[in-house]
Structure to design on (317 residues):
């Protein structure tokens, strides 16, 4: 007896004979499961049966040779392979659906998407990346604060998505790596001209007489840099504290002293020479940022559009 796949295209291929490119129906089904968090919810979105969705995902997994979803007691959780595939196909499939009239979303009626995170990263990277969506009618409400209070507010339902500077603990939230930020030690040229040779000669002690400009009184970013790069404890107090790294950058550009910044925040200043790298370690300190949300399927489809676009943009940051 001849068995056919859900699309009537003959028997599902074995891994050895599978085509390299899954067909559009499989990819549409995959994206619906990825966004909805369950086979049952995806079936309702697509207007097909739940067994058909299950079969199509199995066919896709056989074709790719990779597991896409971890089956849970309620719903499914995407694997790292699924996150990667979704970031590559979401925009083309959404564009195709809109061009063929299959996009039933009504953005003018959708609720705003509540996005939160560090002020500097949101203003410098995230909001410019989301401009195409806002031009299409997606509404955003943006909050800025430190990661810990924002995650508590996310758990309480005040936000839809949070860009966090670390992975949240526990199972009440789901987190996907968004970007890696590299930290750099910088100063204005007036300081750098005599600091760089002394730093190379005697190490971090060369910086002790120089004013330190930092984000907070406990020097979180600078202390981490000292431990990672110099293998020692930072003991000097801050001369200036500004609870916004853009203010730290402005003060240092003006000659207030030296600081440690994420490279993305000072790439233009380094290129123009208004800031100078004081030290270039072979293994610079890196911090991974995460995009965090509550488990389950958001009621607002625009949350998924914002999430998918941020994940795509994060690959270039």
């Amino acid at each position: 007896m001849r068995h056919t796949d859900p699309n009537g295209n003959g028997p599902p291929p074995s891994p050895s004979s599978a085509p390299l490119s899954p067909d559009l129906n499989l990819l549409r089904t995959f994206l619906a499961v990825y966004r909805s968090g369950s086979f049952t919810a995806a079936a309702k979105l697509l207007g097909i049966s739940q067994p058909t969705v299950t079969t199509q995902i199995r066919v896709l997994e056989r074709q790719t040779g990779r597991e896409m979803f971890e089956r849970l007691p309620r719903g499914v959780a995407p694997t790292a392979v699924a996150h990667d595939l979704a970031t590559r196909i979401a925009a083309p499939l959404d564009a195709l659906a809109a061009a063929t009239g299959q996009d039933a979303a009504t953005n003018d009626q959708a609720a705003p998407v509540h996005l939160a995170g560090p002020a500097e990263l949101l203003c410098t990277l995230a909001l410019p990346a989301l401009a195409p969506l806002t031009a299409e009618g997606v509404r955003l409400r943006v909050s800025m604060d430190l990661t810990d209070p924002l995650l508590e507010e996310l758990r309480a339902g005040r936000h839809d998505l949070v860009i966090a500077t670390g992975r949240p603990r526990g199972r009440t939230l789901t987190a996907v790596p968004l970007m890696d930020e590299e930290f750099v030690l910088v100063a204005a040229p007036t300081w750098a001209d005599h600091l760089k040779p002394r730093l190379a000669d005697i190490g971090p002690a060369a910086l002790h007489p120089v004013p330190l400009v930092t984000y907070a009184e406990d020097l979180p970013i600078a202390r981490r840099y000292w431990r990672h790069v110099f293998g020692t404890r930072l003991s000097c107090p801050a001369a200036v504290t500004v609870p916004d790294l853009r203010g730290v950058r402005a003060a240092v550009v003006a000659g207030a002293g030296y600081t440690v910044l994420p490279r993305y925040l000072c790439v233009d200043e380094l290129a123009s020479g208004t800031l100078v790298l004081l030290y270039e370690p072979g293994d610079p300190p890196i911090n991974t940022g995460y995009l965090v949300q509550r488990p389950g399927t958001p009621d607002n489809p625009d949350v998924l559009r914002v999430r998918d676009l941020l994940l795509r943009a994060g690959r270039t940051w």
